[in-house]
Amino acid sequence: MGDFRGARMSVREALRDFRWLEYRPFLWIMVIEVLFLFFALNLGTAWGMAGAGWLLKTIGAGALHYPASYLVLTIAQSRLEWALFTLLGSFLIPLSLVRIEAPMAGFSPTGPDSVRRARRAYLPTFIAQILNIVLVILWQLLLQVGPSRWIHFFVGGIIGDTLTLGVGILIAFLISALFIYVPIRGVDSGGSIKNALLGGIQEGIRYLGPTLFIVLVFIWPTLIFLAPVQLRPALLVTRFRPELIAILLLIATVLNSFVNYLIYSAAARLHWLGKRREG
Amino acid sequence: MTMTRGRLLRWAAVLALLMALSGCGDVAGLATRYRAERMTAEIRKEAKSLEVGKERPDSATFLRLRGIYGRMRVSFHPPFVSGTSENAKKVNREVAREVGIAELTGAGYALGARRPDLALESAQWVQGIADDDTALLRESAFTQARAYRGLRRFDEAITTMRSLLQRFPPAVPPTPAQEDPMLGVPDAIVELREARGDSLGAREERRTAAAYFRGVIAQTSSPILAAQAGSHLVRTLLELDDFGGAVGELDELRKLIAQNPGLKPLEPEVLYSQARVLNAEKDPKVAMDAYDLVLMCYPRSTFAVKALLDAAVLCEHLKDRAGALARYRAILDRAKPDPTAGPIASFRLAMVLDQMGNWADAKTALEGIPMQFPVSRAALEAPFAIAEHYARAGQPDAVHAALLRAIDTYRKLAAQDTTSLFGAAYRWSILRAQIGTQQWKDAMATIDDMATRDRGAPIVAQALVEGARIAHVTKNDKRANAYLQRLVLEYPRSPWTPAARKALQESAPGVVKK
Question: Within its chain, how far is the Cα of B314 from the centroid?
Answer without folding.
Answer: 28
